[in-house]
């Protein structure tokens, strides 16, 4: 069994924390439903223009878990052109 995590640093077009919450909640919920991952905002909650999101998956094969998180990144880029993915770190835990 392999556990992989991904940390995404995002730049958002939000002008307030309320706007940011809406964008982040939407991304997290849709990622959970589409990719069956655990997801949370883990840092910079008080900054309206930036978010750090974490995603975690467990799989029988390491390559399968990594590909799922890479697919999630590609989906985010395609699905949310208003969100800039500044950095992504994918690691085996």
What does this protein look like?
The chain is built from two helices and four strands. A hairpin with a 6-residue loop joins strand 2 (38-43) and strand 3 (50-59). The longest helix has 19 residues, at 17-35. The mean pLDDT is 90. With 93 residues, it is α+β, with helices and mostly antiparallel strands. The chain has a single domain, classed as Alpha-Beta Plaits (2-Layer Sandwich), CATH 3.30.70. It starts with a strand and ends with a strand. The chain has a four-stranded antiparallel sheet, with helices on one face. It is 40% helix and 38% strand.
- Multimer state: single chain
Radius of gyration: 13 Å
Named at the architecture level, the CATH assignment is 2-Layer Sandwich
Q: Uncertain regions: pLDDT < 50 for 5+ in a row?
A: none
Which class do the helix and strand fractions yield?
alpha+beta
Tell the overall outline: elongated
User: Care to count the β-strands?
Assistant: 4
Strand order of the largest sheet: 2-3-1-4
Helical amount among residues, as a percent range?
25-40%
Question: CATH superfamily, please?
Answer: TT1725-like
List the helices and strands and how they pair.
Elements: E1 2-11, H1 17-35, E2 38-43, E3 50-59, H2 62-79, E4 84-92
Antiparallel strand pairs: 1-3, 1-4, 2-3
């Amino acid at each position: 069994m392999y556990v992989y995590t991904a940390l995404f640093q995002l730049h958002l077009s939000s002008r307030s924390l309320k706007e940011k919450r809406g964008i982040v909640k939407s991304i997290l919920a849709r990622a959970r439903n589409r990719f069956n991952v655990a997801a949370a905002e883990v840092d910079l909650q008080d900054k309206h223009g930036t978010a750090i999101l974490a995603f975690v998956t467990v799989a029988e094969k390491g390559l399968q878990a990594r590909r799922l998180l890479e697919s999630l990144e590609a989906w985010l880029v395609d699905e949310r052109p208003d969100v800039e993915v500044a950095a992504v770190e994918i690691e085996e835990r």
